[in-house]
Amino acid sequence: MRTMQAVQADITTLAVDAVVNAANASLQGGGGVDGAVHRAAGPALLAACRRLDGCQVGQAKLTEGFGLPAKFVIHTVGPVWRGGSHREAELLAACYHNSLTLAGEHALSSIAFPCISTGAYGFPILAAAEVAVAEVSESLKLTRYEVDVIFCCFGAAELAIYRHLLERV
Ligand code: AR6
Where in this chain does the record put each Macro domain (predicted)? Predict the structure, then answer.
């Protein structure tokens, strides 16, 4: 049975198989959720990331979780919002799709996503949540991956949006 749920939490506290990190192309750390993930995981995460040779927008790469309660971190790079006509939705969907593919390939049974691209990268939260829920439902339907998905919202407003969208799936 595969489930999708939204929770309000600091993603670094979740004891899931993998937490997804909203990183940048260098994979060298940054602010927002990326900064929180690196702080909680410890310096071994940065050392592991340095061996990955960066990551392109829409792609995803996996490391161990080191000091995190999560076993693994899936690093993905969301698109910067530039008005909506620069393939932002397609690239954001690719982040969710490729992260789930990695989870499936590693036989992970639970994965938590932050609201990728909706902080420093400026993607409007409602549009981003619609992409996230649609892409994850579609990917779970099309694959045999037995993975439970958590949409980890930092704030109450994001949580309300996800709960509303998930009721309609
Ligand atoms: N747990 C869960 N969600 C969080 C946490 C947390 N601990 N901290 C922030 N958020 P952002 P982006 C939420 O800016 O827009 C970094 O510098 C936050 O409220 O972290 O993809 C990277 O290195 C927002 O809803 O990621 C990149 O350069 C969401 O996470 C750039 O920012 C995403 O906000 C990526 O920007």
Answer: 1-169
